[in-house]
């Protein structure tokens, strides 16, 4: 029985969603934070998309957002020249870190004790969160605004991307180890610790590099300009989205395009796999987040796999309606959820 | 024909103008619940006060007493029953007292620099 993907739409933001991040798996599930140009980042339950709370305090567009591994802290980077650290359980603002220009990226170390920031002032800053008033360690070298900065190699190194380069820094010496020149403007970067893989997107290219040497492992070309890509935790597949509003899923080993989905009403700015790989989330210019199943038809989160024959039999016992009704009810739920009629059926390649 | 995957319900969205972070959620209760009880708040305040006393020690302090009287001294200690502050080098119009006790009930406020 061929199933059609039913994305779950998370509404609430009023402007484009530009960044999103998942936490690790905690005893309470995993969580998702979204950065939005409306200045109000939101925390959601990761497997259902249910809204938990909104972090209020920024006075400008929020460009970057992240959660620590156990989702007890959140950090955000904004156009109001500040990065903020939040208590992700109570929603309270804990620390405000003033910068000299728009901040674009924030990342916690694994122990949540240090915060890395990067932005338009071309400097990387490392803050000791136990001493937030102290001056941060500053790493300079970028010649254009930093778009993304990430800890790597067990927090011993830093990966940062600006318009034309990706650089690797050693944390203890605060010096550049390696630099990679990129043909076009880097649109996104993701670090995968297991296997030390760096995922970079630029133009229509999705490239995979070694996080230790910055050498390219492989790359794929998409049909349209890609803004973000994410590698599945088991490294079987990857997802990417960009300017044609579509989401693409590729086989990581062969590069074959497996699935593609329409659904968003605007360019996709960010896409990330959940920590268990069962779903991926996309954020778009249309102000929504959508959750997509990795294995379409699997019962997980809010998705429920219903086999029509079994449903018909139960429906006949439970209700006095005709057997065909059950399928229509599922259809109604799907269309109600999708906000729109699919203009064409999503292409699914077996 | 492709059958769309069924969903139990839609993801819940924001609630009106609330900022969320429901204090009754299991996660909030488990991680912060204790802090929110009266006992938790009082324990927090006690701890903060003790930290203030520790931070004041050795610092030049200005005490604001009744009837507009202000005296300067070096903060030394406070007793457990909240009866008196012990200070060193208390400057009075009659001279400097090497060691003195100021009654809690006489002190309206005191300030000291953090550095």
From TrEMBL, chain A:
Gene3D superfamilies found in the cross-reference section: YVTN repeat-like/Quinoprotein amine dehydrogenase
UniProt GO BP: alternative mRNA splicing, via spliceosome; maintenance of gastrointestinal epithelium; negative regulation of transcription by RNA polymerase II; negative regulation of transforming growth factor beta receptor signaling pathway; neuron differentiation; retinoic acid catabolic process; retinoic acid receptor signaling pathway; spliceosomal snRNP assembly
WD repeat placement: 55-96, 96-137, 139-179, 261-302
Biased composition annotated in UniProt, kind: Polar residues: 335-350
UniProt xrefs under SMART domains: WD40
Keywords: mRNA processing, mRNA splicing, Repeat, WD repeat
GO molecular function: mRNA binding; signaling receptor binding; U2 snRNP binding
Classification via Pfam families: WD40 (PF00400)
GO cellular component terms listed in the entry, alphabetical order: cytosol; nucleus; SMN complex
Region (Disordered): 314-350
Family classification: Belongs to the WD repeat STRAP family.
Protein name (Swiss-Prot/TrEMBL): Serine-threonine kinase receptor-associated protein
Native source species: Aquila chrysaetos chrysaetos
UniProtKB/TrEMBL annotation, chain B:
Domain of life: Eukaryota
GO cellular component: SMN-Sm protein complex
GO biological process: spliceosomal snRNP assembly
Protein name: SUZ-C domain-containing protein
Coiled coil feature spans: none
Matching InterPro entries: SMN_gemin7, SUZ-C
Domain SUZ-C per the UniProt entry, residue ranges: 1-25
The species this protein was found in: Accipiter nisus (Eurasian sparrowhawk)
Pfam families given in the database record: Gemin7 (PF11095)
